């Protein structure tokens, strides 16, 4: 018998006329040339496949072997079932049954695609309702929609409202849109059931987001510097200079403190920290890094250095 090897029978009725058999697309070329078989309704074939007796799981796996190099031993029965179902939808597997091909009457899928093409032409590819964007698609083409992730399935009640609204806006094409509304698929629950007819998808609103400017990446050396900086401590530095404040004031002396790494430079005058009656100059420098050394230069007008001192942040030199 022609259809005996590499096929999967979905039903075992008394008569062969209603029996639906799955064959590979390559095998169908030969079968079609021999005659005696015609293509069956894919939706009916998928429904029968999903309701196949569980005891026939080995037959499913034997048939799935010819669909490609898959590790069927690591796939459960539901995954194997999905593999065959997807192959039917994309044309790698053909559902056939006994009888002459009906070339004059197009199949249900072809009719739906023709209707959809007419609708798309009249609405110019744009279907909107209450500020939302929608898209019609034939049931078997749903999974292969290129931008499927940007759409979600609209319930049948909403789909009818969208098409009724479009019919009012396009009164001249109301009959065509009414036909599309009548062909809408009933609500279904995957994977337990599949759509049968036209499916209306609604565009998922895009969420606006402001990109966060994180600046240039941090280098390892910069990261190390930040860690070291977090461990550093600051403290005050008190300096006593053996010079009468009045003398320094008469010479307009300035006292400049500089860190060893030149990251800190502070200039003070006698008036900044002068206490009445003192015979010494006491200067207070706050928030200095304790791990650095500092030098102090006292200059009078004209830039003459009167005194130079060097010490660390723990206090003035002895």
Short synopsis of the structure:
The protein is built from 10 helices and 14 strands. By secondary structure, the protein is an alpha+beta fold.
Keywords:
3 domains; alpha+beta; disordered C terminus; 318 residues; 10 helices; Immunoglobulin-like; four-stranded antiparallel beta sheet
Helix percent reads 25-40%
Written as H for each helix and E for each strand, in order along the chain, the element string is: EEHEHHHEHEEEHHEHEHEEHEEE
Integer count of domains: 3
Helix count, DSSP H or I runs of 4 or more residues? 10
Biggest sheet: strand arrangement: 1-2-4-3
**What is the number of strand segments?**
14
Overall pLDDT confidence: 78
Radius of gyration: 43 Å
Distance between the termini: 113 Å
pLDDT under 50 segments (min length 5)?
A: 314-318
- The computed structural class is alpha+beta
Q: How is the main sheet built?
A: 4 strands, antiparallel
Shape designation: elongated
Strand content range: 15-25%
Description:
- The chain is α+β, with helices and mostly antiparallel strands and 318 residues long.
- It folds into 3 domains: 8-98, no CATH class; 108-203, no CATH class; 230-312, Immunoglobulin-like, CATH 2.60.40.
- Helices cover 32% and strands 24% of the residues.
- The chain has 10 helices and 14 strands.
- The strands form 4 sheets. A 4-stranded antiparallel β-sheet has the order 1-2-4-3. It has a 4-stranded antiparallel β-sheet with strand order 5-6-8-7.
- A hairpin with a 5-residue loop joins strand 10 and strand 11 (265-269).
- Helix 5 (108-123) runs antiparallel to helix 7 (174-182).
- The longest helix has 16 residues, at 108-123.
- 19% of the residues are buried.
- Residues 314-318 have low confidence and may be disordered.
């Amino acid at each position: 018998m022609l259809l005996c090897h590499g096929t999967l029978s979905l039903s075992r009725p008394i008569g062969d006329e209603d029996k639906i058999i799955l064959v590979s697309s390559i095998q169908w070329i030969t079968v079609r040339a021999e005659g005696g078989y015609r293509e069956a309704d894919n939706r009916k074939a998928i429904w029968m496949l999903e309701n196949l007796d569980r005891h026939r799981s080995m037959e499913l796996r034997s048939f799935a072997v010819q669909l490609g190099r898959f590790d069927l031993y690591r796939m459960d029965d539901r995954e194997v079932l999905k593999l065959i179902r997807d192959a039917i939808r994309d044309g790698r597997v053909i559902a056939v049954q006994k009888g002459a091909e009906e070339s004059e009457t197009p199949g249900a899928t072809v009719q739906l695609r023709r209707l959809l093409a007419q609708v798309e032409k009249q609405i110019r590819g744009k279907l909107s309702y209450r500020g939302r964007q929608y898209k019609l698609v034939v049931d078997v083409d749903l999974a292969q929609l290129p931008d499927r992730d940007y759409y979600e399935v609209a319930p049948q009640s909403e789909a009818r409202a969208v098409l009724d609204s479009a019919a009012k806006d396009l009164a001249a094409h109301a009959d065509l849109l009414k036909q599309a509304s009548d062909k809408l698929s009933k609500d279904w629950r995957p994977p337990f059931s599949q759509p049968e007819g036209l499916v209306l998808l609604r565009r998922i609103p895009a969420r606006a987001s402001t990109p966060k400017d994180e600046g240039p990446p941090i280098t390892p050396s910069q990261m190390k510097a930040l860690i070291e900086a977090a461990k550093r401590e600051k403290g005050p530095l008190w300096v006593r200079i053996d010079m009468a404040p009045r003398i320094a004031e008469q010479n307009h002396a300035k006292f400049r403190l500089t860190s060893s790494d030149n990251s800190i430079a502070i200039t003070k005058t006698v008036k900044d920290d002068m206490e009445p009656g003192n015979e010494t100059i006491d200067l207070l420098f706050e928030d200095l890094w304790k791990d650095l050394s500092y030098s102090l230069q006292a200059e009078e007008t004209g830039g003459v250095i009167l005194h130079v001192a060097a010490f660390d942040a723990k206090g003035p030199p002895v």
